[in-house]
Write a structure and sequence with these properties.
Elements (H helix, E strand, L loop, with lengths): L1 E4 L5 E2 L18 E3 L4 H8 E3 L7 E7 L4 E7 L1 E3 L2 E5 L6 E3 L4 E4 L3 E2 L2 E5 L10 E3 L1 H11 L7 E4 L3 E4 L4 E7 L4 E7 L5 E5 L5 H7 L3 H6 L2
Amino acid sequence: MLHGSDRPLEVVEPQTPTIVHEDPLSNQHAIYASMTVEVPIFRAVMRHDLAAPAPGINWHLNTRDACWDVRGSGLRFTTGYIHVLPREHFEMLDLGITCLCRVPVRTERIHKVDPSILTRLKGVRLSPELIEGLNRYLQGDETLQWKKIDGTDLISADGRFRISGHWGRKSGYYEMVDNKTGIRERSPCARSSRTEWLRSSPNRQSLREGA
């Protein structure tokens, strides 16, 4: 059995999916796995954007041309992990495309996957919105959503990163604090170039992936 997640797990436990699927069967409190590789990859590399009002995703196998049609909104792409799980305790539905387990399962193997794998999968057709988001990721233009607090300070949508500006008469610096690890990054920057600072930040990969 194959299970997709945004983080590596030694033990996979039942949970309610964070991405809302149109099929009620896909929104139960359980471990979701599959005997096919495509669905676990979708679950591993596409995460909901916390700043989006109604994130969701839908995929189905078009039997006419043996192709997966995938569409969604309010999603972002991230590095993910495919977990190989034992078949014991899994209930197989729709020919093994969807399999459910309601008890914790220990992982046998873990494989790291990048969203670029979607460009190499045969028989997968993404909606225009997902193609646009994937292209932004591959081109390095996808960052976390930010909202302004306390005047000029910014905080990421998930609350993990906070950026504050400190300026003198001619120059100053931006400081980004990772509230999860306590790591601080300080960089000289002109008052008008916060966007460029975000793009060139050494932590930009972490910002993009939410690592």
